Amino acid sequence: MAKVLDSFLKENLDDLKSKGLFNVIDPLQSANGPIIKINGNDLINLSSNNYLGLATDQRLKEVAEKAIEEFGVGAGAVRTINGTLELHTKLEDKIAEFKHTEAAIAYQSGFNCNMAAISAVMDKNDAILSDELNHASIIDGCRLSKAKIIRFNHSDMDHLRQKAKEAVESGLYNKIMVITDGVFSMDGDVAKLPEIVQIAEEFDLITYVDDAHGSGVLGKGAGTVKHFGLSDKVDFQIGTLSKAIGVVGGYVAGKKELIEWLKVRSRPFLFSTALTPADVAASKKAIEILMESTELHDRLWENGDYLKKGLKELGFNIGESETPITPCIIGEERLTQQFSRRLYEEGVYAKSIVFPTVPQGTGRVRNMPTAAHTKEMLDEAIAIYEKVGKELGVI
Ligand code: PMP
Asked: Which residue intervals define the domain Aminotransferase class I/classII large in the entry (predicted)?
């Protein structure tokens, strides 16, 4: 290894470790369901984004197996050469129907999708108004576009309006976009989309909502934009197939011309191999299940409310979440990690989230109850929280 790389890595890794900011990865020895196995131990899983339990759903497994049998394990090429199977276009039609838009385009991941979509439309002569708590993939997508990035305070609509006005009046930019997460995954709060859309109309802003954590969860499953009745007012509806949908992939849903443009100008669509047949078939099935019934969605909310109530009654700070995402805010980074480790030793897998993912001093254990958890599992988790909370002086 080059000496300069060796010293760079040592210095920075030691620094992270000494500050308690180094995340340890535990490989799972089971599927990512409500109970997972790690190091031979069965644990109640409160850390996955598999909100509806669809990652292990038998119906999805069956269509995935069938797709592998018929189409193989790989798509074999990028979408624009000959990697587009009929399965891909059927999935995209289904996404458009699910999102109440004219068309949709699928990408290999949600992260990829943000990198692809923002930079396909915005360039150095443009500006992007971005909520300060937007996801890393949005931040990277904005940077890639070379547009001027103007951050506004989290969900602060007066600040957004002021920044939009300044950007328009400066006369410096050809196009201006406003970007927000639909649901903010660290706190579980929901973007103020009606106000954002109103400001966008006033200043002719392009609207971009990344609903990775709202799809399957809000709007009876159809997402945050639908929840607010704004399906025809948001230009870019972004989603991922990796969370509530339970598989992998990302998408943009919007007007036909926008999707046509993305198909000829977004680089991961043009230069990276298409989603596999199994991913595509399973994702389409998941969306069909969501469109047929709200059963899983309803169970997710019931479980979210149950866990929140249990932790709140014990005296934990669970923040102001408006969704089933249940943060348990501990504060100091090392205490947060110790808390999470003790939960683990007692049988609950709930990961600590610390700086730089969340602001310094607001370390938290993030709980994601899913539709697949039983009340018994949640009761056991709450009892373990009580034990560890008392032991570490958090409650
Ligand atoms: N956007 C948001 C808001 C996310 O939370 C995530 C995943 N953490 C992504 C995009 C990336 O999605 P994926 O995991 O499908 O790449």
From this structure: 42-382
**Whole-angstrom distance, CA of residue 236 vs CA of residue 258:** 8
215 C-beta closer than 6 A to ligand 1: no
ipTM of the complex: 0.99
Of the candidates 17, 189, 181, which has an alpha carbon nearest to the alpha carbon of residue 114?
181
Give the tens place of pLDDT for each residue, 125-150.
999 999 999 999 999 999 999 999 99
Per-residue pLDDT at 354: 87
- For residue range 49-64, what is the model confidence (pLDDT) as tens digits? 999 999 999 999 999 9
Active site residue 185: yes
226 is catalytic: no
Strands (E), 102-144: 103-107, 127-131
Tokens for 375, please give them: 């009340």
In ligand 1, the atom with minimum distance to the C-alpha of 182 is 3
> Which option is the CATH number for 17-46+294-392: 3.20.170.40, 3.90.1150.10, 3.30.1380.10, 3.30.1490.190?
3.90.1150.10
pLDDT at residue 234 greater than cutoff 80 = yes
